[in-house]
Amino acid sequence: MATDELAPLRSGAPEDRGAYAGVLRLYELAKRAEWQVRDLPWSELPPVPESAGSPQKAARRMDIWRSVVTQQLQADELAVEMATQLFSIAPDPEAKLYYTTMVQDEARHTEAWLRLSEAAGGRAERDPYLDQLAHMTLEADTLEEKVFLMQVFYERLIISRFRMIARGARGTVLADLCNRLTVDDGIHHRAGMAYERVLLEHADERTRARLVEAANRMLPVFVKHALWRPKAREVVGRLMRETDIRMLHEDIETGVRNAESLGLDVSGIDLAF
Ligand SMILES: [Fe+2]
Ligand SMILES: [Fe+2]
Known about the structure:
Ribonucleotide Reductase, subunit A, globular, binds fe (ii) ion, disordered N terminus, mainly alpha
């Protein structure tokens, strides 16, 4: 691509395209990290952990895993919509190029979850807070807010959940998938940080203040999402609550540090719980 084809399209975009080097690096990294659904160990490992014990106990365990898979399927279905929106509205050619990889990643994640969900016996209850989080992002007014909510916050906060699922589901397709998603969402998050940094370079105070307001709207819903358990997991949910809350605190603190490293005044962020 000739350099003059990369002329800034966004008003206030930096003249120096070197500012986008970080975004382009993440594009290269995303291409190298690309995998296929057929690479998952479908024929070697069980889809989700198998349970010894009585048929009733096995059925209850299967309900739990089905609901775990459903929640992640729902998350990645919504991620396809959000990534597609970012791809279509990002005016900077470097970011658009990067988002082609994210749209493909989220679609591939959904493909894997759909197959896993079928293997685990179909879908379970929908997480209402996840729908709310997605709508907040899809309906946010500015690109800065959308990148901030999805990539700076959500995709970073979700990584520890993937690690937790992988630990609880060793030796399954589910664990293998979660390990891949840890890598992919790590890249999505880093790309969002790199792009948000460019977007905010010349942003006015109003735009910056709006991001803090957006974080304050999002965090309480994220907390509800992280602590939400469908009927199938209510008992496990109660047992896990303390661990969940500790993890949430750590994750949200990391999110706030990330926001701070983007030059935002985070003193106005309400830690929500
Ligand atoms: Fe994803
Ligand atoms: Fe993602």
